[in-house]
Amino acid sequence: MNAKPKIYIPRPNFPQVIERLQTHFDVTHNQEDQRVTQEHFLAQASKADGLLTTGSDLIDLSLLNACPRLKICANMAVGFNNFDLTSMTQAGVLATNTPDVLTQTTADFGFALLMACSRRLVESEHYLRDQQWKQWRFDLLAGQDVHGATLGIIGMGRIGQAVAKRASKGFDMNVLYHNRSQLAPSVESECGATWVELAYLLAHADHVMLVLPYSPEAHHMIGARELAMMKPGAHLINIARGGLIDENALVNALESGHLGGFALDVFEGEPTINPRLLTQKRVVLTPHIASSTIATRLKMSNLAADNLIEFFAHHRALTPLNPQVLASVKAPKHV
Ligand code: GLV
């Protein structure tokens, strides 16, 4: 009888999903709330046939070269900028992600951040807890309206569209979007959204939300220049990837009084946070939890597990990113 394929899971995950995987695989996993060292990660990955990764486990050429057994990396995330997809494809390593199952939950959270920073929710809560509240005041912690305002969405994939529907249908917002390709007229009308150039969006939106995938070309796409183009008092929300924004320029734009506030769920060096972000008042900072409801995270985990199971049982996957790898039955070659 053939030995079971070896799967390594470097982060805590649902016990029931690990149990399910254990019926198919020889599973090694880290259930500690402490990120494993890179050396440990490499040592374990080099013994594995498959990995169940998250969006911050880097799979690059040097890892692939150190892991000649590796055949599949199943990301428990829709974003996959942690994968060097070209090298994975060349190495014959299948990559999968978890699209769709997190769309609505992530859009809900984008909206929560938009509401929270526009209405200064976190700052207000701290003010009250710090016992600074003396009396009702006409301008106490006054924020900016969300309903009826203009929302600019950068990146109009599944999550961007779900945000747009909430904004146009629920909050009567004027929704502008910028995306590499314009959506079909029927989808635009369903979303109540209008395609515009990026410069126009930045100049006209009261609130701007980033919902686009990260790529090296998009690194710091929001820097000092773009922030200066934004409307005075506008808010910026990022539920995509931290590297899209130059965080120092962002803090400068807030400190100068040009920006009204910002809300970030993702950070360039996460989980390490630029200390300048931590001292700002008109901001909301959350630890990359936009998809974090138990129901949705369980769906993501099960989808990643299904990709591993399908791959080893039937040489197929539910949500492959480089399906061309499946066409080849050759053993992986990593160099
Ligand atoms: C989370 O950031 C994801 O890509 O799923």
Please describe what this structure looks like.
With 335 residues, the chain is of the alpha/beta class. The protein folds into two domains: 6-101 and 293-328, 3-Layer(aba) Sandwich (Rossmann fold), CATH 3.40.50; 103-285, NAD(P)-binding Rossmann-like Domain (Rossmann fold, 3-Layer(aba) Sandwich), CATH 3.40.50.720. Helix content is 37%, strand content 14%. It has helices at residues 15-22, 38-45, 61-66, 85-90, 103-118, 121-129, 158-170, 185-191, 198-204, 224-229, 247-255, 275-278, 294-314, 324-327, and strands at residues 6-9, 26-29, 50-53, 72-75, 94-96, 150-154, 174-178, 193-195, 207-210, 235-238, 261-264, 283-285. The protein has a seven-stranded parallel β-sheet, sandwiched between helices. A five-stranded parallel β-sheet has the order 2-1-3-4-5. Helix 5 (103-118) packs across helix 7. The longest helix is centred in the C-terminal third of the chain and has 21 residues, at 294-314. It is globular. The two termini are 30 Å apart. The protein binds glyoxylic acid. The site of glyoxylic acid has 6 residues, from loops.
Please provide a brief summary of the model.
This protein is an alpha/beta fold and 335 residues long. The chain has helices at residues 15-22, 38-45, 61-66, 85-90, 103-118, 121-129, 158-170, 185-191, 198-204, 224-229, 247-255, 275-278, 294-314, 324-327, and strands at 6-9, 26-29, 50-53, 72-75, 94-96, 150-154, 174-178, 193-195, 207-210, 235-238, 261-264, 283-285. α5 (103-118) crosses α7 (158-170).
